[in-house]
Amino acid sequence: MLRAALLPAGVAGVVCAVVATVTGGAAGLLAALVGVLLVVLFFGSSLLVLERTARVSPPLVMLVALGTYTLKVLLLALAFLVLSRTTDLPGPALGLTTIVVTTVWLAAELRAFVRTRQPLYAAPAADADDEPTDDAAASDERPGGGR
Hints:
Layout: H1 2-56, H2 61-84, H3 91-116, H4 134-141
């Protein structure tokens, strides 16, 4: 999924960088590149960490996902705090690039996920011991599912 999201996000990043360069010069280009880098690191790190975790221990995936997300939000807040104190980067170029590349990344990741057709829930296999008795089957057939 990383490759499926990285390519469209990269194309969107290049388009944003060109627009930012035309409108803001070298500072606009730098801001756009920083925005692309932040998005790729934010979303790419999740995919890499969760992919490796799923291979090692599938039950830990949700715990690792929540921990990774929390850490990334804190680091992203810190990054934007540091970037807001610099006057060298134009805020609109950084913000718009971040929004556009994030939107494209998420759309591409969603498209890739839908195309994988992985079941989200695997029904447990029915055992011979789990077959309903005649009384249980009869109660399920009545309106209301029982007595």
